[in-house]
Amino acid sequence: MPIRRRRSIFDIIDEYFESLEERVKRSGETLIERPSWNQKTCTVEPLRDIMVTPTEIIVTVDLPYAEESTIRVKPIDKDTLEILAKMRRKIRFDDFGITHYEGEFQTFQCQTRIPVPVYMEKMEIRFKKGFLEIRLPRKHEYEISRE
Amino acid sequence: MSEEVKIIEKKETPSGAAMLFGFPDVGLVGVIAASHIISELNLTEVAYLDSRLLPPLIVLHEGLPHSPIRIFGNHDILLAVSETAISVDVIYPIMHALINWGRSKNVKIMISMSGIPVQDRRDIEKLKVFAAGSSPETLKMVQDKGIEILKEGYMVGPQAIMMQYCARTGVPAVTLLAQCFFNYPDPEAAAEILKELANITGIKVDVSKLLKKGEEIRLRARDVMRRTQRELSKMKKTQEYDIPLYVS
Fold first, then answer.
1. Architecture of domain A36-137
2. Residue A103 distance to chain B (closest CA, Å)
3. Per-residue model confidence (pLDDT) at position B1
4. Any idea where the domains of chain A sit in the sequence?
5. Cys staple from A126: which of A68, A133, B24, B116, with CB 3.0 to 4.6 Å?
């Protein structure tokens, strides 16, 4: 049986502050207003929502016009998912009466951070009526036992 | 009328009409329903709201500036609609100004079109519509039309202010709430509202085009939904999920 080195309280505090800094950095990114579309990559960002339950994380994504066979959900790292889906038709700005921008879009693309540890490999996906549902079982890494 | 909010009339407005409200809220139900009524019944802009309380924002249509909050109408309908999410700080004066203006036009009833979020919305095939009334008489009227009453619970947003102010001033008012998504535009819920609106007022609007254009509306409404989500969060909209403590 491998011997695990016990971490000192200072290591734990350092880790905590590192993760806090990372969170602040991430929230800073999301606070900056930006368009929901990207002309360079020809992608639009879908609306999405995350629900945390005691046992799992449920991510839902609104994907109107999405072609089910093109939906890709890829874990980027241990707490980030990338979602991609092609639309059945190309959308142009002038479809919405917008003439001062040019460009057409046929792909949904977004990255979503998962707020708690999960088992990415146990991901379950369901697509119904243009809505994608991703279920990820939660990983309970730290449990405080009562002595 | 409040001095900080002005309603500027552009055309002669009818007296004794039904006044409808479609403001950004959960599922954008009211805005989607209002937009469909305007296009199907060819309503024209009869008035608009002007206020320094609003952000420095105009909406351009065909190159011309418009207020984000406008009133459309014909001979028997007045419809107030907002194309932008309304900040929680200014909802009171805006709703009071609109209702006072409606009272000056002797509107016979005020009806707010909105949604009630349900967690398992994706799995619901037949959406229910609930109603709340400003008085026992209006409540009986909607019950007689077969609409289920929202008996207990919280209501948050412009429709809450409308109900409270109309109850106080004696204007008959109804809020129609269709089961809907919280965070996603919901054209199907808007269609259900329009069916019950026809039931109450006789204002019939064909919803087949609305349902057919559902995906296009969901795509187009993403940005308004995103901004509305932020305002809903500030006004503690999730309180509508809460179970109230009954105080008699």
1. Sandwich (2.60)
2. 15
3. 46
4. 36-137
5. A133
